[in-house]
Write a structure and sequence with these properties.
50% helix, 345 residues
Length: 345
Amino acid sequence: MRKFVFSALISMLLIACSNNQQVHYDSENKSNLYSKIIRNFATDDGLLKTDLKGREHEYLAESQGLLLEYFLQQNMRENFQLAMKATENQLLLKNNTVSWQKINDEKSPTNALIDDLRIIEVLMAASEKWEDSHAKKLANQLIEGNMKHTLNDGYLVNYSSNDENNRTDEINLSYVNKNQYDYFNFPKEQLEKQMKILEETPFSKNGFYPLKFMINDKTYTFEKKVHMVDQLLTAINRAAVNPDDHGFYEQLKNRFNRDGKIFGMYHLKTGKPSVRYESPAVYSYAIQLARIHHDVDFENKLMQRLNALKNHHEDSPFYGTFIEESSKETHVFDNLMPLLIEEGN
């Protein structure tokens, strides 16, 4: 009996040690932007800091999903394995969904559907590309977890709840991605019901989409100030179910031609910018949308504007990144998205 208990303790210790191993992503002979993302944001746990001032101890599932996507895109299998294990060890919740945020050592008890969907998609793609059985197993765990805890009245909703009688009735349109939903193998009618959210999305007079759909009363909700990341993701999602819809895209081009840039947020009623900042992530999604429309001219204009936002100080440790020189103002999202766009083509 003592021998059995001792062996069990050793096994538990070994598991604990393996879960606490330091993670070092290979960044030798890689692109400048990637190498500096790893150097400045990566932690010994394999997660990425959210920024470099104030949120250094905050880690997002969003960042982890984008990092996994990049490793898959660049065929960096060893790095992918490390990032997958870090995601599993550091962010996976007991209900088999992914905590949307970890601060220090404390995980948020809920997920964000958009993060889980992105991770499921990239894990499934990795399982096919490399015949990776563990990636497929983990993806299926996440699918099962979301089927149990993120469904409400047959709709995937914004975040999970273990109490099926107390789930949100909101779904952001930017989350409804048909390619990602296909991995759930929904019955045809259930999938069509969810895609209808995108197909029947109204359009404001100034060319903006609503933020969310309320499943209880089947209504759409607009925000007074619209975030362009949400808008662009919705447009990308709609392109998969309604490829002939060019309304938002033409309005986007008109704004860019008028102002020479795309701002991060706009007023819903006036269509005028509500902020003065530009976002590298916004340009990255706009480039993705231009590629969907096979619009090389607009893509090139957007890429030029994106490059203008880079740090161009050659003697700076942040050269070639989207980290502001003196203040270190940045967000890892605003570095990961350009990385995927610039090297993915």
